[in-house]
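Notebook entry, structure prediction.
Reason for the run: the old model in the group folder had no record of what sequence produced it. Starting over properly, with the input documented here first.
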Amino acid sequence: MPSSVYSFAARARCMLPVPSSPTSTSSYLASLYTKHAALREDSTLAPHEWFNVNRRIVRTVDTILPYGPVIQGPGPKTYELHANLGVALVADIAIRPIRRPCSLSNAELQNKIRQMAADPRKPEFRHTYLNGRVWFSFCILDLELARQSLEDDDFPTFGGNISAIREEDCE
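New structure, fully documented this time:
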C-alpha cells in the first residue's frame, strides 16, 4: 500500500504539460506572430513583422505607464499615448462623457493594460470606474516603423518626456 501511495505522489509532482509534437509551437508563442487582438488596423504583414509590432506594443506600454497620464473628459474623445515607436495605446471615451479623470497610475488598471499588451490574444477592454468608462486598445501610427525589428541594444534611453498626447474628436 505505501508503494502505491508513493508512486501516485511521484506522478502528481511530474504532471507537466507536454506538447503533442516536439516540433510544434505552443499556442502562446504562435500568437506572438499574429495580429494583436486589440489592434484596430487591418494590415497584412508577415509573421515576423507582427512579432515586431507586438514587441513595440509591449515597449510602448512599459514606457508610458510609469508616468501615469490622466485621461480627462468630457467625451467623446480619443487619446493616443505613444513613445515614438510607431504604435500607440488608445484610450477611447465613446459612450458618454466621463465626469472624473481616469488616471493610468492606478495599479489595477496598469496591470490590465500590461496583460493586454503582453498577450496578443487579449482583445480591447473597457475600464469602468466611478463616473466613467474608457475603452483601451492599440493602433499603428507609423506602419514602416512599427514593422521594424526592435533591438534592445539599439533602443535609445527614454529621456523622460512623452510626445504630446494627441486628442481627436470621435466622428
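Summary: Confidence is low (pLDDT under 50) at residues 3-16, 157-167.
The old model has been moved to the deprecated folder.
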